[in-house]
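Reply to dn_fold:

You asked what the input looked like. This is it:
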Amino acid sequence: MRKKIKTVRAKKKLGQHFLKDINIAKLISDTLTFENYNKVIEIGPGMGILTQFLISKTDDLNLIEIDKEAVKYLVEIYPNLKSKIIEGDFLKFDLNKVFGNKQFAIIGNFPYNISTQIIFKTLKHRDQIPFFSGMFQKEVAERICESPGSKKYGIISVLTQLFYKTDLLFDVSPKVFNPVPKVYSAVIQLVRKDCTTLACNEQLLFRIVKLSFQQRRKTLRNSLKSFIMSEKLREDSIFDKRPEMLSGSDFVQITKWIDNGNI
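and this is what came back:
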């Protein structure tokens, strides 16, 4: 008889910090809302403390977990989910294999070391992901939800807020994890906006946003000098500003100006 797995060892290389507070897990699960979809993917379920609450919320819960030991544990604890437990790396996983072109939500207690990459993959698949919630390192959560005018406001703030309404819901103490991390965590919620496309060249916009914040101490006139623009356009007062002062719509307008031949 195969010996049952009683627990899963947290692995530093995977950035694992297992949530052990059931009340916090319940609060996170309660952030999940449904509208025009019923499919949910939980990223990094670990030992399933969040999973136990998600099961009752949807009849199409899918788990993706990179840790083989955790996968074996989850199959033992949730045998009815066996066909829905995917062993793999979310960042490399082809979402169309499970969901096709259908809508689905994402939720989880996300590993700190890949959390921003999870957001960028979500943005890439925004047409299919109307809802996203979960736990991040607090510093990352604040950056995602920050408003213009703050030092925390940056690339991930602009790009996420172009497509999603962002809310930082509550902080989480390090004490509720095993092992205990050195930082606080926070739970955020993203609700997709009605429009998933922008009125500009999106690839150009991403280049402009990234270049601007890579040199965030400079004004846009200096950081964007690699783009050949007319003197009249360069004289616009918006180019006197630093990137953290601009909203997503400001970056859309700048992109349109540059792309529409103002050179």
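The two ends are 74 Å apart (CA to CA).
Hope that clears it up.
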